[in-house]
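REVIEWER CHECKLIST
Item 1: Sequence provided? yes
Item 2: Single chain? yes
Item 3: Sequence as submitted:
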Amino acid sequence: MDPTEYLTMKDREMEQKLRSEAKALLEQGKVDCIIGFEDGSLKFTTTPLITGDKDDISRLVINPFIVNNLSVYLTESKGRVGIVTKGCDSRSIVSLIQDNKVAREDIVIIGVPCPGIIDLRKVEQLVGKDRDEIEGITREGDRVIITVDGNKKEFPTREVLFDNCLGCELPTPQECDILLGEPVLPASEEDKVASQEKINSLKDIAPEQRWEFWRNEFDRCLRCYACRSVCPACFCQRCFAEETEPQWLLPIPRGQDNLMFQVIRNIHVAGRCTDCGECERSCPVNIPLRSLAREMYEIVEELFHYKAGMDKEAPPLLAAYEAIDPEDFIR
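Item 4: Structure as written out by the authors:
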């Protein structure tokens, strides 16, 4: 199908504005390259596009499937960069600025007000079809229209969004140089609660059952490090998982070492995680990693009244100390 068939008029206008702005940035020499999205090789997917060629700009897209957090590419980019960002991506960029991993003056941030990204797995479950059998997916406000076998079915948009998108606090980039559309309102309290259902269901069970759940989950882990690779907050040149002196983890994927990897990784990204959900989305065996990341996110907010990526002038959470910082959790 024509990829533009699942775009609303509003999305088409934003897409054209994006291409115009990106081309101008390259032609005027304001950036050396653009990081954005282009259509993927599979239906209803996109893939990152990194280019310094203005002739490639026509490949840039905005649609309900621009799922990647593109800020992960900034630490390896050279020169001045123009980057397409959603709300959570923008916060990740701010966090990288706070950690001195990127310089604000080297980035032109092109903001996309984001009403949420469609989770294809949820769509497949709703209609009982594989994505290759689905003919069309169109989002129109609070409804999504899915076409299967020539028949159109409507569902509330909230039923097909990624959980982190459903509860998004800041869907409009707070830090940007160019905003492509009108700001999007944050999630309602009802949607925030719905986005936490999987996490809360784990909190509600007995500790023994919860431990058994995670033990079984991490027994399935391949230790492929996809979660680490897509995370903008995982920017260490050498990860502790690869250290041999001392050796923190065995290189083979064992349940206990897999769990240790995730626990340490979540401590390392505390105060940097923006709940973009990339860790869980990228997991090839569907381990609910966002449940761990979100719990750490909430612990940080509760203890330190801190949210990642909100103020580029503020010191990173774990790089600063205040006399009023809580100490009751220290044993």
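Item 5: Key structural point noted by reviewer: The domain at 118-160 is CATH 3.10.450 (Nuclear Transport Factor 2; Chain: A,).
Item 6: Recommendation: ____
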